[in-house]
């Protein structure tokens, strides 16, 4: 949310300057368009993800799954974040055909597409995995996003649901009232919710979390889950973890394919790509679950009362309204979110 999660696992920042310049210029010499094969021939797809070396193994799994399911007819060449183009330019590169597929996060191109931010996650939009799946699969958000991406020349495959997005503090927190005297690090959209309850907030980048907590510059932060906090070694300076039910999954990624590339792909391989990517997305989410479970013992965990969740949902309406104002389609998506919140008893 608000690019909050990008440094949960370090992303490669170095860019091959000459290569990137050619990519941004759409150089056919730097990135020749792979010929899409006829039945029985091999298809090569160039994909960039926004993550770094720490996720090589999990993306190698996707490559292997596609190759096996297609009997070797799909060859996915995956590049790490920033290796071909800067991460914040992946979507533009995908639309132009410079990249043929991406593993991305809508927050990177929120200024280019009216539903990208809400797709990636806004406060109180969904509070558990079942709600998120219901919103995508039953209430029409997935179809709406697919239509919107198609208008951008992009084929939307599946959502990839991420991990937790909760509160870490130095002292136990059992209600929103406990936060009134604390200074909490939060992103702008989260701050917009917390400010309704007179909770002081400030934004600092992840690389400053440890020092800020250890020197009492902040009293807590909303950033990720137990695993994320343990990776940053924040359990050395803060061990009170509060499940806020503000947004879970805490972010939603996606796998996108250039529409021209997709259209040239044989129908049987389109079906294989969709099925395998969906299976891999479930596996990836389960890894987030496992990582958080393994790190949970490092923290003392409490949960906000349901009354606070209802109050935060009402406070989030300002954020939801801002997204709805972007376009009629964004307004339609927000209404899906509101309808679900009402049905779940979180909104009147």
TrEMBL record:
Reply yes or no: does the keyword Signal apply: yes
Q: Cross-referenced Gene3D superfamilies, in alphabetical order?
A: Bacterial extracellular solute-binding protein, family 7
Q: Tell me which Gene Ontology terms the entry assigns under biological process.
A: transmembrane transport
Give the top-rank taxon of the lineage listed in the UniProt record for this protein.
Answer: Bacteria
Q: Which residues form a coiled coil?
A: none
Q: Which UniProt keywords apply?
A: Signal
Mark the transmembrane ranges: none
Keyword rRNA processing in the entry? The reply is no
Signal peptide (residue range): 1-30
Name assigned to this protein: C4-dicarboxylate ABC transporter substrate-binding protein
**What organism, scientifically named, is this protein from?**
Billgrantia tianxiuensis
């Amino acid at each position: 949310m608000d690019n909050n999660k990008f440094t949960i696992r370090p992303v490669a920042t170095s860019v091959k300057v000459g290569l990137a310049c050619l990519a941004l210029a759409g150089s056919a010499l730097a990135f020749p368009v792979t010929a899409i094969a006829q039945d029985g021939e091999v298809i090569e797809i160039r994909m960039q993800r926004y993550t770094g070396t720490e996720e090589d193994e999990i993306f190698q799994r996707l490559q292997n799954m596609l190759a096996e399911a297609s009997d070797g007819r799909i060859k996915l060449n995956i590049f790490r974040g920033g290796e071909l183009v800067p991460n914040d330019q992946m979507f533009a590169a995908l639309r132009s055909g410079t990249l043929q597929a991406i593993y991305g996060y809508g927050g990177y191109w929120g200024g280019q597409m009216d539903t990208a931010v809400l797709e990636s996650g806004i406060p109180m939009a969904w509070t558990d995995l079942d709600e998120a799946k219901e919103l995508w699969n039953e209430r029409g958000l997935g179809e709406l996003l697919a239509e919107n991406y198609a208008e951008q020349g992009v084929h939307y495959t599946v959502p990839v649901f991420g991990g937790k997005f909760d509160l870490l503090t130095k002292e136990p927190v059992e209600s929103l009232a406990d936060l009134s005297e604390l200074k909490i690090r939060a992103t702008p959209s989260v701050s917009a919710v917390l400010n309704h309850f007179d909770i002081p907030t400030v934004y600092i980048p992840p690389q400053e979390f440890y020092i800020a907590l250890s020197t009492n510059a902040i009293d807590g932060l909303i950033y990720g889950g137990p695993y994320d906090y343990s990776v940053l070694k924040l359990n050395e300076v803060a061990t009170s973890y509060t499940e806020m039910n503000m947004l879970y999954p805490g972010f939603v990624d996606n796998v996108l394919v250039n529409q021209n590339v997709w259209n040239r792909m044989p129908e049987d391989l389109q079906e294989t790509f969709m099925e395998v990517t969906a299976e891999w997305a479930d596996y990836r989410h389960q890894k987030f679950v496992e990582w958080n479970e393994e790190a949970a013992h490092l923290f003392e965990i409490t949960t906000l009362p349901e009354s606070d969740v209802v109050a935060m949902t009402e406070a989030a309406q300002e954020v939801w309204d801002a997204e709805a104002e972007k376009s009629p389609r964004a307004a339609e998506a927000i209404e899906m979110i509101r309808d679900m919140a009402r049905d779940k008893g979180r909104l009147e």
